[in-house]
Design a protein that fits this description.
38% helix; binds NADP nicotinamide-adenine-dinucleotide phosphate
């Protein structure tokens, strides 16, 4: 993505995105790739549901500690500051995003939504 696809890098510059499926195989690969190749992306909001009694915040921490992010961590030690967990569930209307997250203007800040389930 780095050199030959600079249009993609340009596209993500200054943008924030919301993705679903970020804890899955494809989603975590996508998060890592965007952060590594598009360093000017502002935020990646990740819709995460509670699972096996683990709250979304804990799941996000576990996700960011996975081996796939270790190389990125060396390049961008603070990469985790760009990844924000949003509690929700894709089967619930409005993705189950709580009013608190809506009130801080989440939909207005996020022009790109990658929906993967
Ligand atoms: N893997 C491949 O090689 C491949 C190739 C081509 C296409 N695809 C497609 O890409 C998509 C993702 O595949 P994957 O391999 O990444 O699957 P995966 O590892 O099973 O991940 C699925 C993701 O979707 C999330 N999810 C499922 N139901 C949800 C819900 N109700 N609300 C919020 N999140 C929900 C899961 O969250 P939890 O962690 O909470 O379960 C997880 O993050 C699928 O549609 C698949 O068909 C995959």
């Amino acid at each position: 993505m780095e050199s030959e696809s600079s249009e993609i890098v340009e596209f993500f510059t200054g943008k924030s995105i919301l993705i679903t499926g970020g804890t899955g195989f494809v989603g975590k690969t996508l998060i890592e790739k965007i952060l590594r190749s598009c360093p000017e992306v502002v935020k990646i909001y990740v819709l995460i549901r509670e699972k096996r009694k683990q709250c979304p915040a804990v799941r996000l921490q576990n996700l960011l500690n996975e081996p796939i992010f270790q190389e990125l961590k060396k390049l961008q030690p603070n990469f985790n500051e760009k990844v924000v967990g949003i509690s929700g569930d894709a089967t619930i209307p409005k993705l189950g995003i709580c009013s608190e997250d809506v009130e801080v203007g989440l939909p207005l800040m996020v022009p790109i939504v990658v929906f993967r389930k």
